[in-house]
Design goal:
Distance between the termini: 23 Å
Number of strands: 5
Radius of gyration: 12 Å
Structural class: alpha+beta
Strand order of the largest sheet: 1-2-5-4-3
Helix content: 25-40%
């Protein structure tokens, strides 16, 4: 993934999180770190299971709409205590 592409994904994902009032957003940039599991981790907090699902849905919708991409893997939808969305080089953790 090129740096420009990473920045576009980051901005779209941040918009999606802010749309649903995600809090304590943290961005961890691992670009250039050998054997890092991804180039970028975007983390945020939700105040309820409802907000958790809303944020994850918003990220999914924004990325699909603006970038025509889907998460390679999603975890945590059943338990609804946290949700991890893996876009290969970018991981979103709510």
């Amino acid at each position: 993934m090129q740096k420009q592409d990473k920045n576009i994904y980051k901005e779209i994902i941040l918009q999606a999180i802010l749309e649903k009032k995600g809090e304590n957003i943290t961005i961890l940039d691992f670009e250039g770190i050998e054997n890092a599991p991804a180039e970028l981790f975007i983390l945020c907090d939700a105040n309820s299971n409802t907000q958790l699902r809303a944020i994850a849905s918003s990220v999914e919708e924004f990325v699909l709409q603006h970038l025509d991409d889907k998460a390679w893997h999603v975890e945590g939808l059943v338990e609804q205590e946290w949700i991890l969305m893996d876009y290969i080089n970018i991981v979103v953790h709510v």
